[in-house]
Fold these 2 entries.
Entry 1:
Amino acid sequence: MALQTRDLLAVGQVAERSGFATSALRFYERMGLIEATRTSAGQRRYQRNVLRRLAFIRAARNVGLSLDEVGDALSALPGGRPPSRADWERLSRSWKGRLDEQIRALTALRDGLDSCIGCGCLSLKNCGIQNPEDVVASRGPGAAYLPGPLRRPS
Ligand code: FES
């Protein structure tokens, strides 16, 4: 089925609708995360379904996936046709474990930020009980009592 002109969006339209700066769109295109065709005048044109890919990229970045991980995930989508509902379902299934881990970590953070997190500050009264003399320093850098997903370098 041939694409209609109305199905193609200019870079400004994609930026406005997705909330990404045009520079970010060009960057994601260079990284192979999104695709654009060119008009005869060399202007970028995007298929409308690029908005879903961009929404996925934003959500993935917000839960801590690296751009390489985002690229791996998106590469599982079919080329040559817009992803179907089943394609997106398959992709989100592979994401579920990661999201569950993030939810557990954020819940632990919410419930534990008012007590010792093993950061080495020794500033709370109960640090003397949970981290006397900064004994958790031997575990390496970071707040040792925070869940792992919250201690990963960003
Ligand atoms: S909160 Fe920082 S060492 Fe306990």
Entry 2:
Amino acid sequence: MVKGTPSLGKRNKVVHIRCRRCGHHSYHLRKRRCSYCGYPDPRWRRYNWIKSKKLLH
Ligand SMILES: [Zn+2]
């Protein structure tokens, strides 16, 4: 049952599952938080890097 690259890292551990809110496969089981939208935080995760320029004075 060994095909392709057999030992390209230990990928057996499931760290992220599918987030029920954003639908991305980014819900961290140990952190209990979605790395994409920030679930279960009430607000969606704010992306400060979008407005990292001088848009906001
Ligand atoms: Zn999410």
